[in-house]
Specification:
Blueprint lengths: L28 H15 L6 H10 L12 H21 L3 H6 L7 H12 L16 H19 L5 H17 L14 H13 L9 H13 L6 H5 L6 E6 L8 E8 L12 E5 L12 H11 L25 E3 L16
Antiparallel strand pairs: 1-2, 1-4, 2-3
Helix pairs in contact: 3-6, 5-7, 6-7, 8-9, 9-11
Protein name: C2H2 finger domain-containing protein
Keywords: Membrane, Transmembrane, Transmembrane helix
Pfam family, one: DUF3435
Length: about 350
């Protein structure tokens, strides 16, 4: 039996397919790849060449980072103090900026003393409106702190510490001269009964009309969320549906499942950068003697009214009792619709 002859054609799937004799024309592809490889080696594996960073250092604008970041409320105080300083300089007939720059000099104490004395004597404000005036020495101290920020914003420097210490005596003398009280304002005490009465009034009153009936419910929910949030009204007013998490959780004692609400305040404080968001849990208290003090009642009413749950079949409170939790799980999330997450629940308040 004769041996089968080997096929003369070379298979290109084999390593033996290549030999110097059968090179093919690549159209200059490898000539183009090699310079690109050399460029990558030149950059050291980075995205931009060294010239990019040299030029960036030369053209960098530092002025955009020199100004201090202040909240909107702080900016209002600074602008009001700056406006008063300009009025005061107009009375003296001097340039406001030059006077402000001279505050750090040794002879500036008389300028500051008379500015605060002039400010305390002002009885009429903008557009001829009567000013409330300063009644507390603590308010005068706060005004001095605001002025220091105005000086720093205008000059880029902080006031001299020696001048700051001397101003404390100036503020004490001015407090005595204008008979300012040093008594702190007492905090108002509000009991649960007071809160219940206020909620009942908000729901039933006819002396106050609401553009939309739901706004009554939102006003009550606002009051109920202030306590767990540590009385941060601005953060509660900016609460969005996306900041709320609801879940059905198992009762550790084997009873019916409970509804757990978690809400996250993302706008607590923004001065000097965003702070860590705090999440507050609200366990279900539907069995409470007073349902007027239960935030679940009002929040669930709003969510069902807007059909906010992602599960389209979950459109009434009665259907919550039909939900069950997997035996191996502790809770069942109740996610809301994605298109509602950026909506602020207090719109219209």
């Amino acid at each position: 039996m004769t041996r089968r002859a080997r096929h003369s054609a070379i298979s290109y799937d084999s390593d033996a397919s290549y030999s110097p004799e059968n090179e093919f024309d690549d159209g200059g592809l490898f000539d183009k790849v090699e310079p690109f490889t050399r460029i990558l080696q030149l950059f050291g594996g980075n995205v931009h060449p060294p010239e990019y960073y040299r030029e960036a250092v030369e053209k960098f604008n530092e002025t955009a980072y020199e100004a201090q970041d202040y909240s909107d409320g702080s900016l209002l105080l600074l602008d009001a103090c700056d406006a008063q300083w300009r009025q005061y300089c107009e009375v003296l007939g001097c340039d406001p900026q030059k006077c402000l720059e001279s505050v750090s000099e040794s002879s500036s104490l008389r300028l500051l003393y008379n500015f605060f004395d002039w400010s305390l004597n002002q009885k009429v404000g903008k557009d001829g409106r009567k000013r409330r005036g300063t009644r507390k020495s603590s308010s005068l101290s706060t005004y001095w702190k605001v002025f220091r920020l105005v000086f720093e914003r205008a000059t880029g420097d902080k006031l001299d510490q020696k001048l700051n210490r001397r101003m404390h005596k100036v503020l004490r003398d001015l407090s005595k001269k204008h008979d300012l009280s040093d008594q702190r304002r007492a905090n108002r005490c509000m009991t649960i009964e007071d809160l219940k009465e206020q909620i009942e009034t908000t729901i039933s009153t006819t002396k106050k009309s609401f553009r939309l009936g739901e706004l009554r419910i939102l006003a009550v929910l606002f009051l109920l969320l202030l306590a767990p949030a540590g009385a941060r009204p601005t953060s509660i007013l900016r609460l969005r549906f996306g900041d709320i998490r609801l879940a059905l959780v198992k009762d550790p004692e084997g009873g019916p499942h409970n509804i757990l609400i978690r809400f996250t305040l993302a706008f607590t404080k923004t001065y000097l950068g965003v702070k860590d968001a705090k999440t507050f849990p609200l366990p279900e208290t539907l069995a409470d003697p007073s349902l007027l003090l239960n935030p679940h009642i009002f929040l669930l009413g709003i969510l069902f009214r807007h059909r906010a749950f992602r599960a389209t079949s979950l459109n009434s409170p009665a259907q919550l009792a039909n939900l069950d939790i997997h035996p191996e799980e502790r809770e069942l999330p109740l996610p809301l619709k994605d298109d509602l997450k950026t909506h602020i629940y207090s719109d219209g308040l």
